[in-house]
Design goal:
The protein has two domains: about 5-65, no CATH class; about 70-375, Aldolase class I (TIM Barrel, Alpha-Beta Barrel), CATH 3.20.20. Helix content is about 50%, strand content about 10%. The chain contains 21 helices and nine strands. It has an eight-stranded parallel barrel, surrounded by six helices. The protein is globular and about 60 Å long. Bound molecules: S-adenosylmethionine and iron/sulfur cluster. S-adenosylmethionine (SAM) binds near residues 165, 269, 274 and 277.
């Protein structure tokens, strides 16, 4: 189907030579140069089974991640504004035939209230998420919500990047979305396997595989520079799915000179009254999941990899090392649930799926610092026009770190001063000092100057 060449992917999956351990080792060695991999090479890595080779794969993925991203982890939170949906995806609690779900759509005031709670937690990036609904998630409504959220200001703290994960739009609506000032448009194909797609999406707009597959083309043609793709692991065979994702990334790169800004790797979670989520057709175990992330990191080294709170805290810690660059934290997946959880109400009857990591943003930040990762709230690139191919050029020239590191540190310092609990401060200030001490030359000077400005009360200090 289109650029997803099922025959070719299947031929790779059936190719016995790609199970050869000598070849797999050669590919790992090539991958260590951080120049990316072909579909054939990626298949060889996905076929790795031996514990020794897996350990080598993870070691090289970690090395490549460190070369490109250092120890930074960018943080964000989703904001669900409606669970009304006209589709009937078999894995999702929002599907229209789920009469057990309590339906709720937020008004603009309620959306602003949710965003305000996130700002008060210290978040700087929000991902707006919604079911597909002609009114409650219409593009003009999204525009009004974005305007309201960007206006929030709490002593210089605000939402500085709004990404959007809503159903595919028309070219005209994507143009509007761009003009609202969004960061990334994100949409997951769910499965690149056509037959599985058809089984999971029998009704509504979403049953059109091609409409969804070409959403990113329309978004890019409309001028949105950063797009995020993903597939829902657990629906089809994970090797097929990973090769589908990579085919999509390569296709965008070849057509527009820039691949996806991010790749998300959601894994199926239990969801109320959603048969495919309760019994996933192709369960992906933890070790295979780690392999998927490592292979994506090596195949497309400059693409951000997003890991959500669907995963448990212990596993998340392990996955950071092999390639993840962005994580959600303190998330809720029901409309209005930041307010509800603050009031200690249970919101399971409204949520999209169950989460694996229930920790607050503060706890996640503390844990990251304790593990040696630098939490970053940076949103500088798209505001400095470093999006799309301009971002990729910079990333590939290895110069991005010179900008990202100081920005990450300045935004982390803002967080520590304004929002961190005392327990977090205890761990994080020491970690922060050590990180400053590791720096040398111009970067060190830049960081020291930026931190001084933050200490003097300036906010939103970035390069
Ligand atoms: N409704 C829009 C759509 O489907 O494109 C917007 C996004 S939907 C609310 C967000 C994503 O949640 C879906 O693309 C799907 O990958 C994911 N999702 C749905 N059910 C899930 C489940 N049971 N476990 C994990 N992720 C799930
Ligand atoms: Fe609706 Fe999206 Fe859930 Fe499908 S995944 S039922 S389109 S909210």
């Amino acid at each position: 189907m289109y650029f997803i060449d099922e025959n070719y992917i299947n031929s790779l999956l059936q190719n016995e030579k790609l199970h050869d351990e000598h070849f797999q080792l050669d590919v790992i060695s090539k991958a260590s140069e951080a120049k990316g991999l072909t579909l054939l090479e990626s298949t060889a890595l996905l076929n790795i089974e031996s514990p020794e080779l897996l350990a080598e794969l993870f070691k090289i993925a970690k090395k490549v991640k460190e070369i490109i991203y250092g120890n930074r982890l960018v943080l964000f939170a989703p904001l669900y504004f409606t669970n009304l949906c006209v589709n009937n995806c078999l894995y999702c609690a929002f599907r229209k035939d789920n009469h057990e779900l309590e339906r709720k759509s937020l008004s603009l005031d309620e959306i602003e209230e949710e965003a305000r709670i996130l700002v008060h937690q210290g978040q700087k990036r929000i991902l707006l998420v919604a079911g597909e609904h002609p009114k409650m998630s219409a593009v003009d409504f999204i525009g009004k919500a974005i305007e309201r959220i960007y206006k929030i200001d709490f002593n210089g703290n605000n939402i500085r990047r709004l990404n959007v994960n809503v159903a595919p739009l028309t070219l005209e609506d994507f143009k509007k979305l761009k003009n609202f000032g969004i960061g990334t448009y994100q949409c997951f194909q769910e499965t690149y396997h056509y037959q599985t797609y058809k089984q999971m999406h029998t009704e509504g707009r979403k049953s059109d595989f091609g409409w969804r597959l070409f959403a990113m083309d329309r978004a890019l043609q409309a001028g949105i520079d950063d797009v995020g793709i993903g597939s829902l692991f657990g629906l089809a065979d994970y090797k097929f799915e990973t090769l589908g994702l990579l085919s999509h990334a390569f296709d965008l790169d070849s057509k527009y000179g820039v691949g996806p800004h991010t790749i998300s790797v959601p894994r199926l979670e239990p969801a109320l009254n959603a048969p495919a989520a309760i019994n996933p057709p192709n369960i992906v175990d933890d070790i295979s999941f780690k392999k998927i992330i490592a292979v994506i990191r090596l195949a497309v080294p400059y693409t951000g990899i997003i890991l959500s709170t669907r995963e448990r805290a212990e596993l998340r810690r392990e996955l950071f090392s092999v390639g993840v660059s962005q994580i959600s934290a303190g998330s809720r997946t029901a409309p209005g649930s930041y307010k509800e959880s603050r009031e200690s109400k249970v919101e399971h009857s409204l949520e999209q799926f169950q989460l694996g990591d229930h920790r607050s943003l503060d706890e996640v930040v503390r844990d990251c610092a304790a593990l040696g990762y630098m939490p970053s709230f940076c949103t500088a690139c798209y505001r400095s026009n470093r999006t799309g191919d301009r971002f990729m050029e910079l990333a590939k020239s290895a110069n991005i770190g010179k900008i990202c590191k100081p920005n990450a540190m300045a935004t982390f310092k803002e967080y520590l001063n304004d929002f961190a609990s005392n327990d977090t401060k205890k761990i994080a200030y020491e970690f922060f000092e050590n990180e400053v001490n590791k720096l040398e030359g111009t970067i060190r000077n830049k960081v020291v100057q930026m931190i001084e400005r933050v200490e003097l009360g300036e906010r939103d200090v970035y390069l």
